Amino acid sequence: MSVERKAESDVLVEVESVTKTYRTGNGLRRGTPTVAVDGVSLRIAQGEWMGVVGESGSGKSTLAGIVCGVVRPDSGSVRVAGQEMYARRRMDRTIWKTVQMVFQDPYTSLNPAMTITEIVAEPLRLWHGVDRREADRQAMALLDQVGLSSAVAGRRPGGLSGGQRQRASIARALAVSPSLIVLDESVSALDVSVQAQILQLLLDLKRERDLAYLLISHDISVIRLVCDRILVMNKGEVVDEHSAASLTEETADHPYTRRLLSAVPRMTASG
Q1: Spatial strand order in the sheet of 11-23
Q2: Of the CATH numbers 3.30.420.10, 3.10.20.740, 1.10.10.10, 3.40.50.300, which one belongs to the domain with range 1-98+181-186+211-264?
Q3: Cα separation of 211 and 146, whole Å?
Q4: For 155-172, what is each residue's pLDDT tens digit?
Q5: What is the reported pTM?
């Protein structure tokens, strides 16, 4: 795997040999273990966009949860801005000011009883101690930044389209002023045109705020379009790592990666 490594001073997140195994069962007997993540390591630099691609069951969403602090690994380490995330029994939640997550389904991840302004303002009050009036003002500015008009500010999530809800989720993540946003299949449920709009929004925010992203997706064509580097996961392991510009069927190291690339539809000229 030939890929350019970032200087130590640029590294924002460093994951070293993390593993995670799940067991299925009814509580009375332990089921067969399933290895979701098997010795995965990665580094994400400030301002970098890394993509992790793989089919369902490859372990990519478990890896996203580990990086965000919502899934504790069985072994290995995760350092965010030089701070060990899992050094103690309970994770230091101040790390969540650095890392935020945007989920695949914005409807279930947004409180249906709150207005969009309240949803975005809540992190400002809880994490930054901003009073309610100022939090609402800043929330409105964030909603404007992600392309939502003031007309939707007083609505609840059920009154918004899928694309609008995802924009609201991004605004909520930005409210904490993170350095890294983890996007777990965050555009896969959207129509192609809306998907393109959200990806363009993320690109614009990346430039404006020097954000780093970890994009989790089963769609390698989306990953190649926007990411700087690509990790390919299969059965819990990283089987390929390349810069997005250099990854082709010819340069891929693993047959699984070549299979993913060969499945991407190609445009052909018609007479």
Answers
A1: 33-45, 11-23, 75-80, 83-84
A2: 3.40.50.300
A3: 14
A4: 999 999 989 999 999 999
A5: 0.90
